[in-house]
Design brief:
The relative contact order is 0.17. The protein is 30% helix and 19% strand. It has 580 residues and is α/β, with parallel strands linked by helices. The strands form six sheets. Strands 1, 2, 8, 9, 10, 11, 23 and 24 form an eight-stranded mixed β-sheet that branches. Strands 5, 14, 15, 16, 17, 18, 21 and 22 form an eight-stranded antiparallel β-sheet that branches. Strands 3-4 form a two-stranded parallel sheet. A hairpin with a 2-residue loop joins strand 6 and strand 7.
Length: 580
Amino acid sequence: MKNVLTGFHHGRCGVFAGVRQVFQRTVANVYDYVIVGGGSAGCVLANRLSADPKNRVLLLEAGTSDDYFWIKIPVGYLFTIGNPRTDWCMKTVPDPGLNGRSLYPYARGFVLGGCSSINAMIAMRGQRWDYNFWASSTRSNDWSWDALLPLFRRIEDYVPFSEAENDAVVHGKGGPFRIENPRVQWDILDRWREAAAECGIPSVREFNRGDNFGCAYFHVNQKNGKRWSMADAFLHPVRTRKNLEVQTSTACQRVVFAKNKATNGRLRAVGVRVAKGHTSSFSTISVRKEIILAAGAIHTPTVLQHSGVGHPEDLEKIGQEVTRPLIGVGRNLQDHLQIRTCYKVRGVPTLNTLYHNYLTRARMGLEYLLQRKGPLTMPPSTLGAFAKSDPSQEYCNIEWHVQPLSLPKFSDPLDTFDAITPSVCNLRPTSRGSVLANPAMDPYAHPSITTNYLSTEEDRTVAVDALQFTRRIMKSAALAKYKPEEFRPGPEFSTPEQLLDAARSLGTTIFHPVGTCKMGHDSDPEAVVNSRLQVFGIDGLRVADASIMPRITSGNTNYPTVIIAERAAEYILQEQRHGE
Protein backbone atom coordinates (compact mmCIF):
# COMPACT_ATOMS: atom_id res chain seq x y z
CA MET A 1 0.00 0.00 0.00
CA LYS A 2 2.84 2.32 0.87
CA ASN A 3 4.43 1.66 -2.51
CA VAL A 4 1.14 2.47 -4.23
CA LEU A 5 0.80 5.70 -2.34
CA THR A 6 4.40 6.55 -3.04
CA GLY A 7 3.86 5.89 -6.73
CA PHE A 8 0.70 7.97 -6.72
CA HIS A 9 2.56 10.76 -4.94
CA HIS A 10 5.41 10.70 -7.45
CA GLY A 11 3.01 10.60 -10.36
CA ARG A 12 0.97 13.47 -8.96
CA CYS A 13 4.16 15.52 -8.48
CA GLY A 14 5.16 14.75 -12.03
CA VAL A 15 1.81 15.99 -13.32
CA PHE A 16 2.02 19.13 -11.19
CA ALA A 17 5.58 19.69 -12.33
CA GLY A 18 4.50 19.34 -15.95
CA VAL A 19 1.64 21.79 -15.46
CA ARG A 20 4.01 24.19 -13.72
CA GLN A 21 6.49 23.97 -16.62
CA VAL A 22 3.75 24.62 -19.18
CA PHE A 23 2.51 27.54 -17.09
CA GLN A 24 6.03 28.96 -16.81
CA ARG A 25 6.57 28.63 -20.55
CA THR A 26 3.22 30.26 -21.23
CA VAL A 27 3.95 33.17 -18.91
CA ALA A 28 7.43 33.50 -20.35
CA ASN A 29 5.94 33.80 -23.81
CA VAL A 30 3.60 36.67 -22.91
CA TYR A 31 4.76 40.28 -23.12
CA ASP A 32 3.20 43.66 -22.53
CA TYR A 33 4.65 45.03 -25.76
CA VAL A 34 6.03 43.19 -28.77
CA ILE A 35 8.03 45.29 -31.26
CA VAL A 36 8.40 43.74 -34.71
CA GLY A 37 11.63 44.96 -36.30
CA GLY A 38 14.95 45.80 -34.66
CA GLY A 39 15.84 48.66 -36.99
CA SER A 40 16.01 52.37 -36.23
CA ALA A 41 12.40 52.66 -35.05
CA GLY A 42 12.46 49.38 -33.14
CA CYS A 43 15.59 50.34 -31.21
CA VAL A 44 14.01 53.63 -30.11
CA LEU A 45 10.77 51.91 -29.06
CA ALA A 46 12.61 49.19 -27.13
CA ASN A 47 14.51 51.85 -25.20
CA ARG A 48 11.53 54.04 -24.37
CA LEU A 49 8.97 51.34 -23.55
CA SER A 50 11.33 49.33 -21.34
CA ALA A 51 12.24 52.44 -19.34
CA ASP A 52 9.20 51.62 -17.22
CA PRO A 53 10.19 48.45 -15.28
CA LYS A 54 6.54 47.38 -15.16
CA ASN A 55 6.56 46.82 -18.92
CA ARG A 56 7.77 43.48 -20.25
CA VAL A 57 9.08 44.28 -23.73
CA LEU A 58 10.16 41.99 -26.55
CA LEU A 59 12.07 43.20 -29.62
CA LEU A 60 12.07 40.88 -32.63
CA GLU A 61 14.67 41.20 -35.38
CA ALA A 62 14.71 38.92 -38.43
CA GLY A 63 18.42 39.54 -38.99
CA THR A 64 21.43 38.90 -36.83
CA SER A 65 23.41 40.89 -34.29
CA ASP A 66 25.35 43.98 -35.34
CA ASP A 67 28.79 42.76 -34.29
CA TYR A 68 29.99 42.45 -37.90
CA PHE A 69 33.38 44.13 -38.38
CA TRP A 70 32.44 46.35 -41.34
CA ILE A 71 29.38 47.89 -39.69
CA LYS A 72 31.38 50.15 -37.38
CA ILE A 73 33.84 51.45 -39.99
CA PRO A 74 32.00 54.19 -41.93
CA VAL A 75 33.31 53.20 -45.35
CA GLY A 76 32.20 49.66 -44.53
CA TYR A 77 28.88 50.35 -46.23
CA LEU A 78 30.71 49.12 -49.34
CA PHE A 79 30.80 45.68 -47.68
CA THR A 80 27.42 45.66 -45.94
CA ILE A 81 25.03 46.74 -48.70
CA GLY A 82 24.46 43.76 -50.96
CA ASN A 83 25.91 41.43 -48.32
CA PRO A 84 23.38 38.82 -47.07
CA ARG A 85 24.99 39.01 -43.64
CA THR A 86 23.58 42.53 -43.19
CA ASP A 87 21.21 43.22 -46.10
CA TRP A 88 17.95 41.58 -47.21
CA CYS A 89 19.37 41.89 -50.77
CA MET A 90 15.99 42.45 -52.38
CA LYS A 91 15.29 43.19 -56.02
CA THR A 92 12.56 45.31 -57.58
CA VAL A 93 10.34 44.19 -60.43
CA PRO A 94 11.37 45.51 -63.87
CA ASP A 95 10.35 49.17 -64.08
CA PRO A 96 9.24 50.77 -67.37
CA GLY A 97 10.32 54.12 -65.92
CA LEU A 98 13.89 52.81 -65.75
CA ASN A 99 13.90 51.38 -69.27
CA GLY A 100 12.78 48.02 -67.94
CA ARG A 101 15.57 47.70 -65.38
CA SER A 102 15.28 46.00 -61.99
CA LEU A 103 17.22 47.49 -59.11
CA TYR A 104 19.53 45.26 -57.09
CA PRO A 105 20.31 45.43 -54.30
CA TYR A 106 17.25 47.24 -53.05
CA ALA A 107 18.98 47.47 -49.70
CA ARG A 108 17.18 47.00 -46.39
CA GLY A 109 19.01 46.36 -43.13
CA PHE A 110 19.02 42.69 -42.08
CA VAL A 111 20.69 43.27 -38.74
CA LEU A 112 20.11 44.96 -35.39
CA GLY A 113 20.00 48.67 -36.05
CA GLY A 114 18.38 47.97 -39.43
CA CYS A 115 19.26 50.43 -42.14
CA SER A 116 21.12 52.64 -39.65
CA SER A 117 23.74 49.87 -39.54
CA ILE A 118 24.36 50.01 -43.30
CA ASN A 119 23.16 53.44 -44.46
CA ALA A 120 24.87 56.69 -45.43
CA MET A 121 24.94 57.94 -41.80
CA ILE A 122 23.59 61.33 -42.92
CA ALA A 123 21.70 63.14 -40.15
CA MET A 124 18.96 64.87 -42.11
CA ARG A 125 15.64 66.00 -40.64
CA GLY A 126 13.92 67.18 -43.79
CA GLN A 127 12.22 70.56 -44.08
CA ARG A 128 9.57 72.44 -42.14
CA TRP A 129 7.06 72.05 -44.97
CA ASP A 130 7.34 68.26 -44.92
CA TYR A 131 6.07 67.97 -41.38
CA ASN A 132 3.48 70.70 -41.75
CA PHE A 133 2.05 68.66 -44.61
CA TRP A 134 1.87 65.64 -42.28
CA ALA A 135 0.04 67.77 -39.71
CA SER A 136 -2.48 69.04 -42.26
CA SER A 137 -3.12 65.61 -43.80
CA THR A 138 -3.74 64.03 -40.38
CA ARG A 139 -5.44 67.09 -38.85
CA SER A 140 -3.08 66.73 -35.90
CA ASN A 141 -0.65 69.47 -34.98
CA ASP A 142 1.50 66.85 -33.18
CA TRP A 143 3.25 66.22 -36.51
CA SER A 144 4.08 69.84 -37.37
CA TRP A 145 7.67 71.06 -37.47
CA ASP A 146 7.22 73.23 -34.39
CA ALA A 147 5.66 70.37 -32.42
CA LEU A 148 8.42 67.91 -33.39
CA LEU A 149 11.34 70.28 -32.86
CA PRO A 150 11.49 69.61 -29.07
CA LEU A 151 11.75 65.88 -29.84
CA PHE A 152 14.60 66.48 -32.29
CA ARG A 153 16.39 68.55 -29.68
CA ARG A 154 15.73 66.09 -26.85
CA ILE A 155 17.36 63.09 -28.50
CA GLU A 156 20.40 64.86 -29.98
CA ASP A 157 24.01 64.93 -28.94
CA TYR A 158 24.96 67.62 -31.43
CA VAL A 159 28.76 67.89 -31.40
CA PRO A 160 29.09 70.96 -33.72
CA PHE A 161 27.08 72.90 -31.11
CA SER A 162 27.83 76.65 -31.12
CA GLU A 163 26.26 79.34 -28.99
CA ALA A 164 27.35 81.90 -31.58
CA GLU A 165 25.25 80.12 -34.21
CA ASN A 166 22.24 80.06 -31.88
CA ASP A 167 22.27 76.25 -32.04
CA ALA A 168 20.36 75.92 -28.75
CA VAL A 169 17.21 76.98 -30.57
CA VAL A 170 17.27 73.99 -32.92
CA HIS A 171 19.75 71.47 -31.47
CA GLY A 172 20.33 69.53 -28.27
CA LYS A 173 23.28 68.13 -26.34
CA GLY A 174 23.71 64.95 -24.33
CA GLY A 175 21.06 62.83 -26.04
CA PRO A 176 21.62 59.38 -27.58
CA PHE A 177 21.45 60.54 -31.23
CA ARG A 178 25.07 61.50 -31.94
CA ILE A 179 25.74 64.04 -34.72
CA GLU A 180 29.25 65.02 -35.78
CA ASN A 181 31.00 66.96 -38.52
CA PRO A 182 32.57 64.82 -41.26
CA ARG A 183 36.21 63.93 -40.62
CA VAL A 184 37.45 64.33 -44.18
CA GLN A 185 37.11 67.08 -46.77
CA TRP A 186 38.12 67.24 -50.41
CA ASP A 187 39.43 70.10 -52.52
CA ILE A 188 37.18 69.09 -55.40
CA LEU A 189 34.11 69.27 -53.16
CA ASP A 190 35.13 72.67 -51.80
CA ARG A 191 35.32 73.92 -55.39
CA TRP A 192 31.96 72.31 -56.21
CA ARG A 193 30.52 74.26 -53.32
CA GLU A 194 31.87 77.47 -54.83
CA ALA A 195 30.43 76.45 -58.19
CA ALA A 196 27.00 75.96 -56.63
CA ALA A 197 27.23 79.45 -55.14
CA GLU A 198 27.94 80.83 -58.61
CA CYS A 199 24.66 79.23 -59.69
CA GLY A 200 22.64 80.77 -56.88
CA ILE A 201 22.94 78.06 -54.19
CA PRO A 202 24.62 79.72 -51.18
CA SER A 203 27.08 77.99 -48.87
CA VAL A 204 25.42 77.28 -45.52
CA ARG A 205 26.62 75.74 -42.27
CA GLU A 206 23.95 73.01 -42.04
CA PHE A 207 20.61 71.81 -43.36
CA ASN A 208 18.58 70.99 -40.26
CA ARG A 209 16.93 74.31 -39.44
CA GLY A 210 13.72 73.93 -41.39
CA ASP A 211 14.77 75.38 -44.76
CA ASN A 212 17.51 73.38 -46.48
CA PHE A 213 18.26 75.82 -49.31
CA GLY A 214 22.03 75.92 -49.73
CA CYS A 215 25.17 73.80 -49.95
CA ALA A 216 27.08 72.23 -47.04
CA TYR A 217 28.97 69.18 -45.89
CA PHE A 218 26.55 66.64 -44.43
CA HIS A 219 26.47 66.08 -40.69
CA VAL A 220 26.80 62.39 -39.86
CA ASN A 221 25.75 59.83 -37.25
CA GLN A 222 29.25 58.93 -36.12
CA LYS A 223 31.06 58.88 -32.81
CA ASN A 224 34.80 59.45 -32.87
CA GLY A 225 35.07 58.23 -36.44
CA LYS A 226 32.85 55.16 -36.03
CA ARG A 227 29.33 54.57 -37.29
CA TRP A 228 26.78 55.39 -34.59
CA SER A 229 23.76 53.29 -35.46
CA MET A 230 20.42 53.45 -33.67
CA ALA A 231 21.36 50.17 -31.98
CA ASP A 232 24.41 51.97 -30.57
CA ALA A 233 22.34 55.00 -29.63
CA PHE A 234 19.21 53.45 -28.15
CA LEU A 235 19.41 49.68 -27.78
CA HIS A 236 22.82 48.58 -26.52
CA PRO A 237 22.89 51.00 -23.56
CA VAL A 238 19.73 49.34 -22.16
CA ARG A 239 20.27 45.67 -23.11
CA THR A 240 20.85 44.79 -19.45
CA ARG A 241 17.31 45.78 -18.43
CA LYS A 242 15.62 42.70 -17.01
CA ASN A 243 12.28 43.64 -18.58
CA LEU A 244 13.70 43.89 -22.12
CA GLU A 245 14.28 40.83 -24.28
CA VAL A 246 15.83 40.93 -27.76
CA GLN A 247 15.45 37.99 -30.12
CA THR A 248 17.50 38.03 -33.32
CA SER A 249 17.06 35.70 -36.31
CA THR A 250 13.34 35.76 -35.50
CA ALA A 251 11.01 36.83 -38.31
CA CYS A 252 7.37 37.75 -37.87
CA GLN A 253 5.06 36.02 -40.32
CA ARG A 254 1.77 37.55 -39.22
CA VAL A 255 -0.23 39.12 -36.43
CA VAL A 256 -2.71 36.95 -34.52
CA PHE A 257 -6.15 38.46 -33.89
CA ALA A 258 -9.09 37.75 -31.62
CA LYS A 259 -12.54 39.28 -31.46
CA ASN A 260 -13.10 41.33 -28.34
CA LYS A 261 -16.54 40.66 -26.88
CA ALA A 262 -16.28 43.80 -24.75
CA THR A 263 -16.17 45.91 -27.93
CA ASN A 264 -18.88 44.11 -29.92
CA GLY A 265 -16.52 41.75 -31.68
CA ARG A 266 -13.96 44.38 -32.74
CA LEU A 267 -10.62 42.88 -33.74
CA ARG A 268 -7.75 42.98 -31.29
CA ALA A 269 -4.11 42.02 -31.91
CA VAL A 270 -3.21 39.38 -29.32
CA GLY A 271 0.03 37.91 -30.62
CA VAL A 272 2.49 37.33 -33.43
CA ARG A 273 3.44 34.16 -35.27
CA VAL A 274 7.20 33.94 -35.74
CA ALA A 275 9.86 31.73 -37.28
CA LYS A 276 13.24 31.28 -35.65
CA GLY A 277 15.66 31.36 -38.55
CA HIS A 278 14.91 29.83 -41.94
CA THR A 279 12.62 27.09 -40.70
CA SER A 280 9.13 25.84 -41.33
CA SER A 281 8.57 25.66 -37.57
CA PHE A 282 6.50 28.53 -36.18
CA SER A 283 5.58 29.60 -32.68
CA THR A 284 3.16 32.17 -31.32
CA ILE A 285 4.08 34.94 -28.92
CA SER A 286 1.26 36.52 -26.93
CA VAL A 287 0.90 40.18 -25.99
CA ARG A 288 -1.10 41.80 -23.21
CA LYS A 289 -1.12 45.42 -24.34
CA GLU A 290 0.12 46.17 -27.81
CA ILE A 291 2.03 45.03 -30.89
CA ILE A 292 4.05 47.71 -32.68
CA LEU A 293 5.08 47.01 -36.27
CA ALA A 294 8.42 48.72 -36.91
CA ALA A 295 9.73 46.53 -39.71
CA GLY A 296 9.98 49.33 -42.27
CA ALA A 297 8.22 50.40 -45.43
CA ILE A 298 8.81 47.05 -47.15
CA HIS A 299 8.22 44.49 -44.40
CA THR A 300 5.53 46.14 -42.28
CA PRO A 301 2.94 46.01 -45.09
CA THR A 302 3.88 42.40 -45.88
CA VAL A 303 3.27 41.39 -42.25
CA LEU A 304 -0.14 43.06 -42.42
CA GLN A 305 -0.97 41.42 -45.75
CA HIS A 306 0.02 38.00 -44.41
CA SER A 307 -2.32 38.79 -41.51
CA GLY A 308 -5.24 39.40 -43.84
CA VAL A 309 -5.08 43.18 -43.49
CA GLY A 310 -4.89 45.06 -46.77
CA HIS A 311 -6.53 45.72 -50.10
CA PRO A 312 -8.88 42.79 -50.89
CA GLU A 313 -7.47 42.56 -54.42
CA ASP A 314 -3.92 42.26 -53.05
CA LEU A 315 -4.95 39.68 -50.48
CA GLU A 316 -6.63 37.61 -53.16
CA LYS A 317 -3.39 37.62 -55.19
CA ILE A 318 -1.48 36.04 -52.31
CA GLY A 319 -4.28 33.65 -51.38
CA GLN A 320 -5.08 35.35 -48.09
CA GLU A 321 -8.57 35.74 -46.65
CA VAL A 322 -9.62 39.26 -45.69
CA THR A 323 -9.47 39.88 -41.95
CA ARG A 324 -9.66 43.65 -42.13
CA PRO A 325 -9.91 45.51 -45.47
CA LEU A 326 -7.55 48.50 -45.57
CA ILE A 327 -6.90 49.49 -49.16
CA GLY A 328 -3.80 51.57 -48.42
CA VAL A 329 -1.65 48.72 -47.09
CA GLY A 330 1.31 48.28 -49.43
CA ARG A 331 0.25 51.20 -51.62
CA ASN A 332 1.68 54.77 -51.75
CA LEU A 333 5.31 53.56 -51.98
CA GLN A 334 7.59 56.57 -52.47
CA ASP A 335 11.36 56.76 -52.90
CA HIS A 336 13.98 59.28 -53.91
CA LEU A 337 15.30 58.38 -57.35
CA GLN A 338 18.86 59.62 -57.75
CA ILE A 339 20.36 60.31 -61.16
CA ARG A 340 24.09 59.67 -60.97
CA THR A 341 25.95 61.87 -63.42
CA CYS A 342 29.74 61.45 -63.53
CA TYR A 343 32.52 63.84 -64.58
CA LYS A 344 36.22 63.21 -65.12
CA VAL A 345 38.42 65.85 -63.47
CA ARG A 346 42.11 66.67 -63.78
CA GLY A 347 44.73 68.04 -61.45
CA VAL A 348 42.89 67.18 -58.23
CA PRO A 349 42.80 63.88 -56.31
CA THR A 350 39.61 61.89 -55.84
CA LEU A 351 39.00 58.58 -54.11
CA ASN A 352 39.23 56.74 -57.44
CA THR A 353 42.99 57.02 -57.89
CA LEU A 354 43.70 56.96 -54.15
CA TYR A 355 41.88 53.66 -53.88
CA HIS A 356 43.73 52.08 -56.81
CA ASN A 357 47.13 53.01 -55.34
CA TYR A 358 48.03 50.31 -52.80
CA LEU A 359 50.49 52.53 -50.94
CA THR A 360 47.90 55.28 -50.56
CA ARG A 361 45.31 52.75 -49.51
CA ALA A 362 47.61 51.47 -46.76
CA ARG A 363 48.20 55.05 -45.62
CA MET A 364 44.43 55.65 -45.43
CA GLY A 365 44.09 52.53 -43.29
CA LEU A 366 46.78 53.69 -40.88
CA GLU A 367 45.25 57.16 -40.69
CA TYR A 368 41.96 55.61 -39.66
CA LEU A 369 43.47 53.20 -37.14
CA LEU A 370 45.61 55.85 -35.47
CA GLN A 371 43.47 59.00 -35.76
CA ARG A 372 39.97 57.89 -36.81
CA LYS A 373 40.21 60.33 -39.71
CA GLY A 374 40.53 60.27 -43.46
CA PRO A 375 38.64 58.60 -46.33
CA LEU A 376 37.66 55.53 -44.28
CA THR A 377 35.39 57.80 -42.22
CA MET A 378 33.53 59.14 -45.23
CA PRO A 379 29.88 58.33 -45.85
CA PRO A 380 28.66 57.41 -49.36
CA SER A 381 27.90 61.10 -49.92
CA THR A 382 29.92 63.88 -48.34
CA LEU A 383 28.63 67.17 -49.73
CA GLY A 384 25.01 68.12 -50.24
CA ALA A 385 23.00 70.88 -51.85
CA PHE A 386 19.31 71.80 -51.96
CA ALA A 387 17.57 74.04 -54.48
CA LYS A 388 14.46 74.52 -56.61
CA SER A 389 14.42 72.78 -59.97
CA ASP A 390 12.56 75.83 -61.31
CA PRO A 391 11.45 79.13 -59.73
CA SER A 392 7.80 78.09 -59.58
CA GLN A 393 8.53 75.51 -56.87
CA GLU A 394 7.29 76.56 -53.43
CA TYR A 395 10.48 75.39 -51.70
CA CYS A 396 13.54 73.23 -52.40
CA ASN A 397 12.53 70.16 -54.34
CA ILE A 398 15.88 68.74 -55.52
CA GLU A 399 18.96 67.58 -53.63
CA TRP A 400 22.48 66.72 -54.73
CA HIS A 401 24.65 64.12 -53.06
CA VAL A 402 28.15 64.91 -54.32
CA GLN A 403 30.78 62.19 -54.12
CA PRO A 404 34.55 62.49 -54.79
CA LEU A 405 34.49 59.20 -56.68
CA SER A 406 32.76 57.42 -59.57
CA LEU A 407 31.74 53.87 -60.44
CA PRO A 408 29.43 52.36 -63.07
CA LYS A 409 26.91 51.24 -60.45
CA PHE A 410 26.83 50.48 -56.79
CA SER A 411 28.94 47.42 -55.82
CA ASP A 412 31.11 47.84 -58.96
CA PRO A 413 34.81 48.77 -58.63
CA LEU A 414 35.71 52.46 -58.69
CA ASP A 415 36.79 53.90 -62.02
CA THR A 416 40.56 54.08 -62.53
CA PHE A 417 40.68 57.81 -63.34
CA ASP A 418 39.86 60.82 -61.13
CA ALA A 419 36.18 61.72 -61.25
CA ILE A 420 33.26 62.99 -59.19
CA THR A 421 29.59 62.05 -59.05
CA PRO A 422 27.05 64.81 -58.47
CA SER A 423 23.89 62.71 -57.99
CA VAL A 424 20.65 64.65 -58.03
CA CYS A 425 17.22 63.53 -56.84
CA ASN A 426 13.64 64.77 -56.80
CA LEU A 427 12.69 65.33 -53.15
CA ARG A 428 8.92 65.29 -53.67
CA PRO A 429 8.20 62.60 -56.27
CA THR A 430 4.59 62.21 -57.34
CA SER A 431 5.14 58.69 -58.70
CA ARG A 432 3.78 55.94 -56.46
CA GLY A 433 4.66 52.27 -56.27
CA SER A 434 3.54 49.31 -54.19
CA VAL A 435 4.65 46.35 -52.09
CA LEU A 436 2.95 42.95 -52.22
CA ALA A 437 3.77 40.10 -49.84
CA ASN A 438 5.10 36.82 -51.16
CA PRO A 439 2.24 34.28 -51.34
CA ALA A 440 4.50 31.61 -49.84
CA MET A 441 3.76 32.97 -46.34
CA ASP A 442 7.49 32.62 -45.64
CA PRO A 443 8.56 35.70 -43.63
CA TYR A 444 12.01 35.48 -45.21
CA ALA A 445 10.68 35.33 -48.79
CA HIS A 446 11.11 38.61 -50.64
CA PRO A 447 7.98 40.59 -51.48
CA SER A 448 7.19 42.06 -54.88
CA ILE A 449 8.39 45.69 -54.98
CA THR A 450 6.98 47.82 -57.79
CA THR A 451 8.64 51.25 -57.83
CA ASN A 452 6.96 53.04 -60.78
CA TYR A 453 9.69 55.68 -60.96
CA LEU A 454 9.19 58.56 -63.41
CA SER A 455 5.59 57.51 -64.03
CA THR A 456 4.20 61.06 -63.83
CA GLU A 457 4.81 64.02 -66.09
CA GLU A 458 5.85 66.14 -63.12
CA ASP A 459 8.59 63.71 -62.11
CA ARG A 460 9.88 63.48 -65.66
CA THR A 461 10.04 67.29 -65.92
CA VAL A 462 11.91 67.59 -62.62
CA ALA A 463 14.41 64.92 -63.74
CA VAL A 464 15.26 66.83 -66.93
CA ASP A 465 15.45 70.18 -65.12
CA ALA A 466 17.71 68.67 -62.44
CA LEU A 467 20.13 67.30 -65.03
CA GLN A 468 20.30 70.65 -66.78
CA PHE A 469 20.91 72.39 -63.44
CA THR A 470 23.76 69.96 -62.70
CA ARG A 471 25.40 70.82 -66.00
CA ARG A 472 25.22 74.55 -65.22
CA ILE A 473 27.06 73.95 -61.95
CA MET A 474 29.72 71.81 -63.63
CA LYS A 475 30.37 74.54 -66.23
CA SER A 476 31.01 77.24 -63.61
CA ALA A 477 34.27 79.17 -63.28
CA ALA A 478 35.09 77.59 -59.91
CA LEU A 479 35.55 74.19 -61.55
CA ALA A 480 37.06 75.32 -64.87
CA LYS A 481 40.68 74.60 -63.94
CA TYR A 482 39.82 70.93 -63.32
CA LYS A 483 38.46 70.60 -66.87
CA PRO A 484 35.35 68.56 -65.91
CA GLU A 485 34.30 66.17 -68.65
CA GLU A 486 30.90 64.52 -68.48
CA PHE A 487 30.97 60.82 -69.30
CA ARG A 488 27.73 59.63 -67.66
CA PRO A 489 25.43 60.14 -69.43
CA GLY A 490 27.66 62.14 -71.80
CA PRO A 491 27.30 65.39 -73.79
CA GLU A 492 25.57 63.56 -76.63
CA PHE A 493 22.44 63.57 -74.44
CA SER A 494 21.36 67.12 -75.08
CA THR A 495 17.64 67.43 -75.85
CA PRO A 496 14.96 67.09 -73.13
CA GLU A 497 13.92 63.77 -74.64
CA GLN A 498 17.49 62.48 -74.56
CA LEU A 499 18.01 63.69 -71.00
CA LEU A 500 14.87 61.91 -69.90
CA ASP A 501 16.18 58.72 -71.49
CA ALA A 502 19.45 59.27 -69.61
CA ALA A 503 17.50 59.62 -66.36
CA ARG A 504 15.76 56.32 -67.10
CA SER A 505 19.10 54.62 -67.77
CA LEU A 506 21.07 56.12 -64.85
CA GLY A 507 18.37 56.54 -62.20
CA THR A 508 18.62 54.35 -59.13
CA THR A 509 17.25 54.16 -55.63
CA ILE A 510 18.79 56.16 -52.85
CA PHE A 511 17.30 53.62 -50.42
CA HIS A 512 14.50 55.80 -49.00
CA PRO A 513 11.28 53.75 -49.39
CA VAL A 514 8.41 55.16 -47.31
CA GLY A 515 4.65 55.56 -47.22
CA THR A 516 3.23 52.03 -47.56
CA CYS A 517 1.04 52.25 -44.42
CA LYS A 518 0.38 55.93 -44.51
CA MET A 519 -0.89 58.01 -41.64
CA GLY A 520 -4.03 60.03 -42.22
CA HIS A 521 -7.40 61.20 -41.04
CA ASP A 522 -10.23 58.66 -40.92
CA SER A 523 -11.82 60.48 -43.86
CA ASP A 524 -8.91 59.33 -46.07
CA PRO A 525 -9.85 55.90 -47.51
CA GLU A 526 -6.18 55.06 -48.17
CA ALA A 527 -4.95 55.86 -44.67
CA VAL A 528 -3.81 52.80 -42.70
CA VAL A 529 -3.10 54.41 -39.32
CA ASN A 530 -4.49 57.44 -37.54
CA SER A 531 -2.46 60.36 -36.20
CA ARG A 532 -1.54 58.30 -33.12
CA LEU A 533 -0.29 55.54 -35.46
CA GLN A 534 -3.03 53.07 -34.46
CA VAL A 535 -4.20 50.78 -37.25
CA PHE A 536 -7.76 51.66 -38.22
CA GLY A 537 -10.31 49.14 -36.99
CA ILE A 538 -7.92 47.02 -34.92
CA ASP A 539 -7.16 47.42 -31.21
CA GLY A 540 -3.71 46.78 -29.80
CA LEU A 541 -1.89 47.27 -33.11
CA ARG A 542 0.23 50.23 -34.11
CA VAL A 543 2.72 51.04 -36.87
CA ALA A 544 5.76 53.18 -36.11
CA ASP A 545 8.28 53.35 -38.94
CA ALA A 546 8.88 55.04 -42.30
CA SER A 547 5.84 53.32 -43.79
CA ILE A 548 3.50 55.80 -42.04
CA MET A 549 4.83 58.88 -43.85
CA PRO A 550 1.98 60.44 -45.87
CA ARG A 551 4.62 62.08 -48.06
CA ILE A 552 8.35 61.51 -48.17
CA THR A 553 10.59 63.99 -46.37
CA SER A 554 13.07 66.26 -48.15
CA GLY A 555 16.26 64.30 -47.72
CA ASN A 556 17.54 61.16 -46.03
CA THR A 557 14.83 59.33 -44.13
CA ASN A 558 16.56 57.72 -41.13
CA TYR A 559 16.29 60.70 -38.78
CA PRO A 560 12.56 61.23 -39.52
CA THR A 561 12.02 57.53 -38.81
CA VAL A 562 13.66 57.92 -35.41
CA ILE A 563 11.34 60.84 -34.64
CA ILE A 564 8.31 58.81 -35.70
CA ALA A 565 9.30 56.13 -33.18
CA GLU A 566 9.96 58.73 -30.49
CA ARG A 567 6.49 60.21 -30.99
CA ALA A 568 4.91 56.73 -31.01
CA ALA A 569 6.59 55.87 -27.70
CA GLU A 570 5.17 59.06 -26.21
CA TYR A 571 1.67 58.09 -27.35
CA ILE A 572 1.96 54.54 -26.01
CA LEU A 573 3.23 55.60 -22.59
CA GLN A 574 0.62 58.35 -22.33
CA GLU A 575 -2.13 55.84 -23.02
CA GLN A 576 -0.61 53.39 -20.54
CA ARG A 577 -0.62 56.01 -17.78
CA HIS A 578 -4.17 56.98 -18.64
CA GLY A 579 -5.23 53.32 -18.50
CA GLU A 580 -3.64 52.88 -15.11
